[in-house]
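Researcher: Next entry in the queue.
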Amino acid sequence: MSLIPDNDASAFHNLLTGFQRSEDAGYMNAAALAILLYDICTTIVDEVEFIWSERWTITKVLYLIARYYPSIFIAVTLRGQHSACPFTSPAFIVAQF
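Model: Structure for this entry, 97 residues:
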């Protein structure tokens, strides 16, 4: 006899599968952020010399947006995924069944 009734077993499985996929997506976002930050750190000297020292143009603004927006977006997304919300924890999900 299972602790979870048969009609709820598939729903429980779907919840746990979704939680695992969300966790995997968080790991991929963390890896992408690490690669972006590594790239920024290794090229910052050239960027300061060739980009920051020049006058402001639309090209410079577009470059800076394309350069830094993904890092900020991924960092905010990671923070949202791993917030301290008790309703997304595995213990809470199991307790509902």
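Model: The CA atoms of residues 85 and 92 lie 10 Å apart.
Researcher: Noted, moving on.
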